[in-house]
Amino acid sequence: MRLILLGPPGAGKGTQAKMLKEKFQIPQISTGDILRHAVKDNTDLGVRAKSFMDAGQLVPDDVVVGLIKERIKQADCETGFILDGFPRTMIQAEKLSETLTEMDLTIDTVVDLEVNADEVISRLAGRSTCPECGAMFHEESRPPKVLGVCDGCGGTLAQRQDDNSETILKRLEVYQESTAPLKEFYMRQGNLKTVIARGSVEEIFSRVCEMVR
Ligand code: AMP
Q1: How far, in Å, CA of 32 to CA of 116, rounded?
Q2: CA–CA distance from 178 to each of 51, 113, 128, 165 (Å)?
Q3: Which of 8, 51, 101, 165 is the one with CA 20 to 30 A from 117?
Q4: In angstroms, rounded to a whole number, what is the distance separating the alpha carbons of residues 5 and 14?
Q5: Among residues 88, 95, 123, 207, which one is catalytic?
Q6: Does the active-site annotation cover 88?
Q7: How confident is the model at residue 141 (pLDDT cuts 50, 70, 90)?
Q8: R_g of the chain computed on alpha carbons
């Protein structure tokens, strides 16, 4: 099963991708996570990506396209994968289609998680993430059992550097401009499914599962 999760920042792509990964035993490929690890490890990639990420801007297409091309050719992707946060521009979507065609593969479903801008702002502003395992929490809707500590691995939770109000607004603007047009692209290809991302994480997950069966 090969899936793409679309939706604005804060729509819950990461959370749903992790649940899909467990259910279907296929890897979650998050360009955001790959880039954040590179920044943390101070690799060449991280150094190149950091200023874009801190400003809420997209990292250049050639960088992320290169990452994805390499990643989906790895052995664990043979039974499928979940793309979380990629593609984000028309160029990325076109390059992905080209690569998949070369590999004689297709995307089965593109799930678009729909959520309004006000909801996004409150979700992101209250969000904390575990830098070790990537688990996400929210001070109201999904608080950790112990304040500031990851339920899964015991790591110390942190707020993402780009989850501040100024950068959130920029990321939303970038989403509207560069990523929202991908809905039309995948609608024309006939594999776009829209899920209203409102309610509990479990409710949203059951709607997502209905769409990807
Ligand atoms: P995310 O964790 O998906 O919200 O991504 C965090 C940041 O990483 C974004 O605001 C971008 O700066 C960068 N990023 C992640 N995925 C992409 C992508 N597909 N194209 C360009 N930049 C990306």
Answers
A1: 21
A2: 18, 16, 26, 20
A3: 51
A4: 9
A5: 88
A6: yes
A7: confident
A8: 16
Which residue in the block uniquely carries the two structure tokens 């959520």?
A: 115
CA-proximal residue: ligand 1, atom 15 (nearest): 32
* Residue 116 pLDDT: 87
Class level of CATH domain 2-115+178-212? alpha beta
Q: Residue 50 belongs to what H/E stretch?
A: helix 44-54
What the block records as the tokens of 141 is: 């809707």
Which is the catalytic residue, given 18, 95, 160, 207?
160
Record the pTM.
0.92
Residue 171 bears catalytic tag: yes
Cα 54 from Cα 170, distance rounded (Å): 10
The predicted pLDDT at position 118 comes to 84
Q: What is the pLDDT of residue 79?
A: 94
CB-based burial of residue 14 (10 Å sphere; 0-12 exposed, 13-18 middle, 19+ buried)?
Answer: buried
207 given a catalytic annotation: no
